[in-house]
Design a protein that fits this description.
The complex is a heterodimer of chains A (about 190) and B (about 375).
Chain A (H helix, E strand, L loop, with lengths): L1 H14 L2 H18 L5 E2 L14 E4 L4 E3 L7 E7 L4 H17 L4 E8 L3 H10 L8 E5 L3 H6 L6 E5 L5 E6 L8 H12 L1
Parallel strand pairs in A: 4-5, 5-6
Antiparallel strand pairs in A: 1-8, 2-3, 2-6, 4-7, 7-8
Helix pairs in contact in A: 1-2
Chain B lengths: L9 E2 L11 H8 L5 E10 L7 E6 L9 E10 L5 E6 L6 E7 L7 E10 L2 E2 L13 H6 L12 H9 L9 H15 L1 E2 L11 H6 L4 E2 L1 H14 L4 E8 L14 E2 L4 E9 L3 E5 L1 H10 L9 H9 L3 E2 L3 E5 L24 E4 L2 E2 L5 H4 L1 E7 L2
Parallel strand pairs in B: 1-4, 9-10
Antiparallel strand pairs in B: 2-7, 2-19, 3-6, 3-17, 4-7, 5-6, 8-15, 11-13, 11-16, 12-19, 13-14, 17-18
The chains are: A alpha+beta (about 190), B alpha+beta (about 375).
Chain lengths: ~190, ~375
């Protein structure tokens, strides 16, 4: 496809005025960009999921019980991860930043670990220089939450509004929480 | 190949009988040179501060075959309050040693020792035997869809693609060969897959991510074969010896804690159950001495060998899917897609079977004769 694009550009540069050529070049560049793989928020319905957030009742590393229903009125980021998942490791820092940026504005990040035991999670945190308290880490020892939420591999992130509706699903790692794609949606929900 | 009657195994519950695995000598005296005997020991040692715990350790095939026999099984739990029993799944396709500790237990260890004999499986496709055919009930059972192995939708579309070039009167073997080749050509071993994979064929095909490990790749073969009306099954097991065929990546001895491996079979009328292993073809391509091209003679050789042959440096556990662990407090929510690793749970939940260091289990294998 790239070769065909270049051939067309070459033809145009020979036979068309410069302004038209520039416009075509810009349009073609944007078209090419749209074909590139792009992670983004997808709608739950688009993925065949319910738009109402399922229940989530899990324990933290310290054994404290957390129930998502008690967080109504907050914007919640539910992220499924595991220590053996490389993209999850990179994403953990981004999620920590997200919690720092918006925690005081009513955002809660719940980092739900899939099926691992506490010593392994602690080893991951220590080995990567993360504090136990940097995020609310929940242990989905029995993989029940993962199945209930129908996460599509690791990592998968669900964005839940103040009224408990799933407003976006991000499949794959969130590489930059400062990107417009990530920020705009979260800030919109926080302002609701 | 026909499966024989249930083997006359010595099965021990709790800490009873068989102070030594004494059948060894008599077995070795009677066995032919083709058979090799191994002792496989699984040791589980759980940390369970609040006492209550359960574990489930997979055992070899329920029925002996003409390439695999169970000679003896012994289990010993360290705490006198532990209750141990052998459990078979309702469809009799899997069995396990199930140990329960109550809140009074102070230690939570169980050791399961197994003696098995194996011989290599090399099937000849000469004269078919008309007596070798499955009953209608068996045909239905071994072509059924499971939770992770559907046989309709995208699976049906893919198998039609795999069989497109075959004549309408193609034999079972020809169909299986076409599916086998499609799987070898279109999947790849992904070293980042955890454990042996999940075997979620629908997800693999829908996301067009055909990378995985043995439980993924061989599940694709089984799902496609079933979708084409060919009886097929995964065979979950573990490597128990190094390969004698010159492939470093296809064997393991001594500490085999992480040597689980899933193979596959299909049933060809006239020939019986036939062994295949497309996942190991992909393993050779990826791992054998720096990685090999598909056209490398070693790959071509193993690709040819693993359709219809198995080197039996491997122990078969079971054929089962979607297994409910007996007594689990999780009920149906705790069902596992397959049983190839020790399982355990306590009051805090299920232990991570893919983390033997923290679960705490070890599996070893040694050749006896």
């Amino acid at each position: 496809m790239a070769n065909a694009f270049l051939r067309n550009v070459m033809k145009l540069s020979l036979f068309k005025p410069a302004r038209v050529f520039s416009l075509v070049l810009a349009f073609s560049f944007l078209t090419l960009l749209s074909f590139a793989v792009r992670a983004e928020w997808r709608s739950a319905v688009q993925l065949g999921l319910s738009s109402i957030a399922p229940s989530l009742q899990l324990n933290t590393l310290s054994g404290k019980a957390v129930d998502i229903s008690s967080l109504k009125g907050k914007v919640i980021v539910v992220n499924f991860w595991a220590s053996w998942c490389e993209p999850c490791r990179d994403e953990f820092e981004e999620l920590t930043q997200l919690q720092e940026n918006y925690g005081s504005k009513g955002l809660v990040v719940l980092a739900v670990n899939l099926a691992e035991m506490k010593p392994r999670v602690m080893q991951f945190l220590k080995g990567n220089g993360f504090s136990e308290n940097s995020l609310e880490i929940l242990l989905d020892r029995n993989s029940i939450a993962y199945k209930t939420w129908k996460a599509r591999g690791l990592p998968t992130t669900f964005l839940v509004s103040k009224s408990g509706k799933i407003e976006g699903v991000w499949i794959g790692a969130i590489e930059n929480v400062d990107s417009n794609e990530v920020k705009d949606k979260i800030e919109t929900l926080l302002h609701q | 190949m026909t499966t024989s009657r249930r083997s006359a195994i010595k099965t021990i519950v709790g800490t009873l009988a068989l102070p030594t695995l004494s059948p060894i000598a008599s077995v070795l005296a009677q066995s032919s040179l083709e058979w090799t005997t191994y002792e496989i020991v699984t040791e589980v040692d759980l940390e369970s501060p609040k006492g209550m715990a359960q574990s489930w350790v997979p055992l070899p095939l329920v029925l002996d075959t003409d390439y695999f026999r169970t000679i003896a099984i012994r289990s010993e739990a360290s705490d006198p309050k532990a209750a141990t029993q052998m459990y078979e799944t309702p469809d009799k396709q899997a069995r396990m040693v199930w140990t329960k500790w109550d809140s009074a237990a102070t230690t939570h260890s169980v050791k399961v020792s197994i003696l098995v004999s194996t011989r290599n499986r090399n099937l000849e496709l000469s004269v078919p035997n008309p007596a070798l055919k499955l009953s209608k009930a068996e045909q239905r059972f071994w072509t059924r869809p499971t939770k992770y192995l559907p046989t309709d939708g995208i699976v049906k579309a893919k198998v039609q693609e795999a069989l497109a070039k075959l004549p309408t009167n193609a034999s079972d073997v020809d169909k299986a060969k076409a599916i086998y080749n499609w799987v070898v050509d279109n999947t790849h071993r992904d070293p980042k897959t955890r454990g042996c994979g999940q075997g979620d064929v629908k997800l693999m095909l829908e996301t067009n991510n055909l990378g995985g490990k043995c439980a993924d790749i061989n599940a694709v073969f089984v799902a496609l074969a079933r979708s084409a009306g060919l009886p097929a099954r995964d065979v979950y097991g573990i490597r128990i010896a190094d390969s004698a065929r010159g492939y470093k990546s296809l064997g393991k001895s001594g500490d085999i804690t992480k040597a689980q491996h899933c193979r596959a079979e299909f049933y060809a009328s006239g020939y019986g159950w036939m062994p295949v292993d497309p996942a190991d073809v992909r393993k050779v391509i990826l791992e054998e001495t720096g990685g090999l091209a598909v056209t490398d003679p070693k790959v071509i050789a193993i690709r040819d060998y693993l359709f219809g042959n198995w080197e039996m440096n491997w122990m078969a556990y079971n054929y089962d899917h979607d297994i409910a662990l007996p007594g689990s407090k999780l009920g149906s929510k705790g069902d596992i897609p397959f049983l190839m690793y020790p399982q355990a749970e306590n009051n805090e939940g299920r232990f991570d079977s893919l983390d033997p260091d923290n679960f705490k289990y070890k599996i070893t294998s040694r050749r006896i004769g």
